[in-house]
Specification:
This protein folds into two domains: 181 residues, Rossmann fold; 127 residues, Rossmann fold (3-Layer(aba) Sandwich). It is globular. The chain is of the alpha/beta class. The protein contains twelve helices and 14 strands. The strands form three sheets. Strands 3-2-4-5-7-6-12 form a seven-stranded mixed beta sheet, sandwiched between helices. Strands 9-11-10-13-14 form a five-stranded mixed beta sheet, with helices on both faces.
């Protein structure tokens, strides 16, 4: 079995879902003829035809609205937004319609749609092409927000998202689209939504993260291990609804919690996790919860981008700081 990248895993999951269920349709800007800006849908229009892989006009509001209409009438649309920074017009549709249809109709209608978007920095892209504003979507009741951290996660979580009866925002960390490869069986096996994954057990500190930052966290944990610090790594995977139980179990064991995310500090999803840990796990904490995040500013252009992104050095310093508490 050949190893594949994260973007290949997305393509593989989409193809499996379309073979499995003829109601699955893809739509978005350039997803058909060009195969998407990152080639995540490459070859799918040739395989499944123009009626199931639709190139849309350059209108994110239209993409969101059409996807909701399709979902309400029995189709399973997977809509692509080229970059997360272009997704904000769809919030109107997602907040006012997609997230409310089940409640509004008392269960008569559901909205089984997926909104895919590449997100995050690290590829030297200009403004609007490197956003990490996942907390905006996670704040909306009725939406699931899912972020894979590897090819295996991307394949399994995307299949689960497509099979889910309610709307899912599926954010793909483009910095690792082609960074790592894994063997991913094309067997249609989904991974569970709404759970955190314990990537590495540890005893001294719980490091909680998601998406591309997981790879920096793993590298930091390797360095910490050389100093005798055992870090447990939690991949959140589904931000909303949040699997608080797994995080609390980890913090109860280690007594310390460091949260790492690329998004800006204020109002980031790390703040929600920190609040839950403080509210529900205060008596387990041996040190204050620490956050390592982006800054409260627009992502700078590529020459300064590395100064914005949480680094391995910043992660290890945060861990060392919480380890100073007895």
């Amino acid at each position: 079995m050949a190893e594949i990248t994260l973007v290949d895993a997305v393509n593989q999951a989409l193809a499996y879902a379309m073979r499995e269920n003829e109601n699955v349709v893809l739509l978005g800007e350039d997803v058909g003829v060009n195969g998407g800006v990152f080639r995540a849908t490459n070859g799918l229009q040739e395989s499944f035809g123009e009626e199931r892989v639709l190139d849309t006009p350059l209108s994110e509001t239209l993409i969101g609205g059409v996807a909701i209409g399709m979902a309400a009438q029995g189709l399973i649309p997977v809509a692509e937004i080229q970059f997360m920074g272009f997704a904000y017009p769809t919030i109107d549709q997602l907040l006012n319609h997609a997230a409310r249809i089940r409640n509004r109709t008392r269960g008569r209608l559901t909205c089984p749609m997926v909104l895919r978007a590449p997100f995050g920095g690290g590829i030297g892209a200009p403004e609007h092409h490197c956003e990490s504003t996942e907390a905006l979507f996670a704040h909306i009741p009725g939406l699931r927000v899912v972020i894979p951290s590897s090819p295996e996660r991307a394949y399994g979580l995307l299949l689960a998202a497509i099979r889910n009866p309610d709307p899912v925002v599926f954010l793909e960390p483009k910095r690792i689209y082609r960074l790592v490869k894994q063997r991913v069986p094309d067997d249609g096996e989904a991974l569970p939504l709404d759970v955190c994954f314990v990537l590495r057990p540890g005893d001294d500190v719980s490091i909680v993260s998601w998406g591309a930052m997981i790879h920096d966290v793993v590298a930091a944990a390797d360095q910490l291990a050389l100093r005798g610090i055992s870090a447990e790594i939690i991949d959140v995977a589904t931000l909303k609804p949040l699997d608080v139980k797994t995080i609390l179990e980890s913090v109860n064991k280690t007594g310390r919690c460091v949260i790492v995310h690329e998004a800006a500090l204020s109002g980031g999803w790390g703040a929600e996790i920190a609040a839950r840990v403080a509210e529900l796990g205060l008596m387990s904490l041996l040190a204050p919860v620490k956050r390592v995040t982006g800054y409260d500013t627009i992502m700078p252009l590529f020459r300064l981008e590395h100064l914005y992104m949480p680094s391995i050095d910043r992660i290890t310093k945060a861990v060392n700081a919480v380890m100073e508490f007895a």
